[in-house]
Design goal:
Chains A, B: It comes from Kushneria indalinina DSM 14324. Chains A, B: InterPro entries: Glutathione-S-Trfase_C-like (IPR010987), Glutathione-S-Trfase_C_sf (IPR036282), Glutathione_S-Trfase (IPR040079), Glutathione_S-Trfase_N (IPR004045), GST_UstS-like_C (IPR054416), Thioredoxin-like_sf (IPR036249). Chains A, B: This is Glutathione S-transferase. 2 copies of one chain form a homodimer. The first copy, chain A, folds into 2 domains: about 5-80, Glutaredoxin (3-Layer(aba) Sandwich); about 90-230, Glutathione S-transferase Yfyf (Class Pi), Chain A, domain 2, CATH 1.20.1050.10. Chain A is an alpha+beta fold. Chain A has a 4-stranded mixed beta sheet with strand order 2-1-3-4, covered by helices on one side. The first copy, chain A, is built from 9 helices and 4 strands; from the N terminus they run βαβββαααααααα. In chain A, about 55% of the residues lie in helices and about 5% in strands. Chain A is globular and about 45 Å long. The longest helix of chain A has about 35 residues, at about 90-120.
Chain lengths: ~230, ~230
């Protein structure tokens, strides 16, 4: 059997905008593994019920092993497959986990501010009421009240200094070559890349230059991702 | 010869408040190395001119090797001395560098807001004009205008989510045991511990609980540090 990843998609199933699925997809390629993606919508929970939970990414490996959660998938990849490490030893993995938390507590809220309505506008109509209700309950306001691109860009600017300082000193977060921490952080940016029409970073920003390098990996896997604005 | 570290001090030379010196001192103990500290004031630049620069920590090893900069000192310790790794391999070290940048771009500004006048009040009178002039030029305002404990505590609260999330999942930043990244971050908190009279964290905060564990390391090395408030 092929190795399969259930991958969040829009109404246009070519639009793949989940940061967590991007992390897993890039991590797979880092190990030199091929992957068939299966488009999945927020409300297709029955289709992944076999995984014992309701979120993607869900990986079904060639031997039918099922793995979920992007961080757990990367840990599992290091344990099961040879090739360059994603996380490395326990100490290195623990630091990657800090960087994961950093990306989820600082970048993700900024990107949500910038692009939540963009996400809403591209998801399948059958997902819209679930998406609106769950997010509006979380934010305590409507999606339209919540989205504020200018404020989101300010939040992003306040979040970026550690990443910028890091990338002033090395080509990738993980050093001379990209690895687990790069995919953890870059996955976040892929949400905006796919759904949002507008630059987040100035081209002379070391973060923007790293973003370009990440887009180019694996034959331009991320760069060639279909984008809402061009469809 | 003994191993020596030039260590920033107050007018009361027992007060050691440099985050960078704390990083190096704890890293030394992590390697099981002993250390003699030599109290140093901001304006004692002649005393460390032999190091080719003007900041502490400066280490003079038993074989007279001279090393500066807390991150470089930790890298050097891993290269020169056996014992538990501080940083580990290149990838792990690169992630530690991200965490260093995180601590310096988010925690340090918050701690400065909270404690800059406290620092000024304990340094040697001979350092005061250097300290005031250099910091006021950087801030574009007087130290007294800059210090705003309430605002600093808000900045700290905004900075802490990734650290808090990390410490909800493990006892230390680096996993089950403290290592390089823990010292990089904890050093920052030692500035406030030594100079500032007032709690920064609620006792049920995982960050506070980690702070307690860090204070206890190496026979309570940090906990037993003389504090301005109790002198």
């Amino acid at each position: 059997m092929a190795r399969i990843m259930y991958d969040l998609c829009g109404e246009d199933t070519a639009l793949r905008f989940s940061p967590f699925c991007w992390r897993a997809a890039l991590a797979m390629r880092h190990k030199g593994l091929t992957l068939e993606t299966r488009p999945w919508h927020f409300t297709d929970t029955q289709d992944i019920a076999f995984s014992g939970q309701g979120k993607v990414p869900v990986i079904v490996d060639e031997d039918d092993e099922v793995v979920t959660d992007s961080f757990d998938i990367m840990t599992w990849l290091d344990q099961k497959y040879p090739g360059p490490a994603l996380f490395g030893d326990d100490m290195a993995r623990s630091r990657a986990r800090f960087i994961k938390h950093w990306s989820e507590t600082t970048l993700a809220p900024a990107l949500m501010k910038i692009a939540i309505v963009d996400v809403f506008s591209i998801i399948d109509p059958k997902d819209q009421s679930y998406f609106r209700e769950s997010r509006e309950a979380r934010f305590g306001m409507t999606l339209e009240e919540f989205q504020d691109t200018e404020q989101g860009l300010e939040m992003l600017e306040k979040a970026l200094p550690p990443l910028r300082a890091q990338l002033e000193g090395s080509s990738f977060i993980d050093g001379d070559h990209p690895a687990g921490a790069d995919y953890l952080v870059f996955g976040m940016f892929m949400l905006a890349y796919v759904v949002h029409d507008g630059a987040l970073l100035k081209s002379d920003d070391p973060v923007a230059q790293w973003h370009e390098r990440m887009l180019d990996l694996f034959g331009g896997l991320a760069r060639n991702a279909p984008r809402a604005a061009s469809r």
